[in-house]
Each structure stands twice: as C-alpha cells, then as structure tokens.
Design goal:
globular, about 20% strand, about 375 residues
Amino acid sequence: MPLKKALSTLLLSAACATFAQADVKVGVITSSSGPLALVGLPQKNSTPLLPTQAGNQKVTYIALDDGSDPTATVKALKKLISEENVDAIIGPSGSPNAMGVIQFAAEAGVPLLAPVGTASVVLPMNEQKKWVFKTTQNDDLIAKALVVNMVAKGVKTLGFIGTADPYGENWAKVMGAMAAEHGIEIVASERFQRQDTSVTGQSLKVLAARPDAVLVAAPGSAAVMPQTTLFDQGYRGQMYQTHGAALPDFLKLGGKKVEGTILAASLMLVIDQVPDSHPSKQVATDYIAAYEKLNGSKPATFGANTFDAGLLLQRAIPVAAEQAAPGTPEFRAALRDALEQSHEVAATQGVYNMTAEDHSGFDERGRELIQVKNGTWTLLGSN
C-alpha cells in the first residue's frame, strides 16, 4: 500500500476511534414540580430508564426541573447548551414551555425532542421547528378517531372546553375544521387556565348550548375539572377527552363522574387488551415493567413520551457518529438529520416514521380508541 494511502487510512481509523470513544450528552428538562407535576414526574422517573449505550457511544443524561415555569425552562435549556455542551435535549413537559424554547434550541443547532401535546411545536414546519421532534401523537391523528366515533354516535352539536394555551388553542383549531367537514357544529367554545380552581362560568355556557357531546382539551390533571363540573351541573351527554387525559390520575380524580368518557390515546392504557401482533406491545410492556420495578407504580403515558425520545436517539446517534464526533456542531446537525430519517422505529406509543415535513411520525398504530368503563380503561376496538 502506498505510504500516502496508508497514512490516510490510519488517520481515518483514528478519527473513527475518536468518534466511538466520545460520550454523547443529553439534557432532560421536566416539570417534576409545580402545576405540571402530574405530567413531569413520570418523565423524570423515566430518565433512569433511558438507553445509556447507542452503538459505540456511551450516552449520559443531565436532568433539570423547570418547576413548570416557562421562564425557568429557557434558563435550563440555555444552561444545558452553554455549560454542559449537550448534543440533544429531551423536554420540556409543557406545551407553553416548549414553544418558548424552540428559538434557542434552533439558534444553537441542538435537536429538541419534545414530549408535549400541541402539534404547534412542529407545525407549520419552518427553519426553527426543523430542530424539534415531537414524541406524542399530533392532534389531528387523535381528533380523527374521536370525530369518526362522534359521527357513528350521531353527534350533530359539540361543546368545547380547552386550556387557554397552545395545547387548547391548537385543539380548537383542529377540531373546528374537522367537525365542520363531518357536519358537526361547535355550539360553544370556552377556555380556562390550567391553574384555575373553578370553571363554573365556562361550563354553564356550554351547558346552556345543549350540545350532544362535549370535548375537553386539556393536559394532565387540568382535564378533570371541566368534566366533573359539567357532571355536577347535570350534563349527561357524551364526554370526549384528548390524549392529554391519558393518565391514572384522571380516573382517580374523576371517579364516577368520568365514567363513559371516550378518548383516543396510546396503547399503553389498554396494553393487556391489545393484540400481541402490535409492533409496540412488547416495547411498551417492557417499559411498564421496568418503570414499575424502579418506582413502585405504573407509568402515565407522559413518561413513555420521554422514554420514546431515548429510543429515537439510540437509533440516530450511531448514524450521526459516522459523520462527526459528539460534542461538535457537526455531530448535532448530523443527529438532526438522522432523527428526521427515523423509519419504522417501534416504541411505547406507536411506530415512528419521520420525514422532513412530519416530525411526529405517527400513523394509526399510534392510537387506540378507549372508553372509561367501571372505573378503568377499556379498548373500544376500531380506531
């Protein structure tokens, strides 16, 4: 072999060895305290379960709590980028928190894997949002399943109560368009703050409109109060919820007042009722068992959204490491590109197929139509 070629081969081998030995640092921002804690705690508790090896790369995680405060989220993200030199960030827990940091993640060229509800973090796609990947189902995928059920039930009029934030507003936009397409009229549309202690005024307006059904669009524990208030006021029409209500505390806090609720959400809620052939069933089953062993309780789907982010990174990191060394801007850019090319990645929530236009990547395998029956989640079948 000529000396020049031999030296080139040696240098290339040395570079590859350097890439292989470098650790990948991932920041994790959760709202494990404050009003979003019911969402953030299972995400924080899932962090120790994240993959610590991706190909030849060791992966380390640096976890911070933003206390549910969007301002603190910005500080945490900037700290992870400037002081810890992270290659990617998982989080934050809340939709407003995530919307507030997209600009800074994009400016730094650091991929952000957001386990939040609103599709606004990735849609409409632009130069900033191309750095964001969403590990929850987009609103339209969930809404379609609900609307199909509404049509089957003969629902003609719908009341809507949503949070006055990106989560509720995007749901109002998506549901408004989809309902109109299927001949369903939204006769009342109300908003409330997540931290509100009463929604009496809003629910009375909805009740006065006498809708056939009501949809509540709120994440975490905030999903409970509008429904229980309507129940107390005598409403007995069909209640619908978004995937934001997919947590054990919805059943605990709502009790008999949320009986009969229909929602579309992850297969995790009804894992024992899902066919073994579902590509995500084993992944979800293993995650649930590991979480329960570590924390002594079953996880909410919000924790699984964080775990799925780790699975996506585990698949993408070795691809990016072929292009550049972790800890460099070149690696982060390559990591973004690799995440965008995620194909048939089976995770706890469904199967991810990312594209340049779709940074959520779910299809119908990422949702199940579910109803609350006898105080527990029950698979309705067709979604």
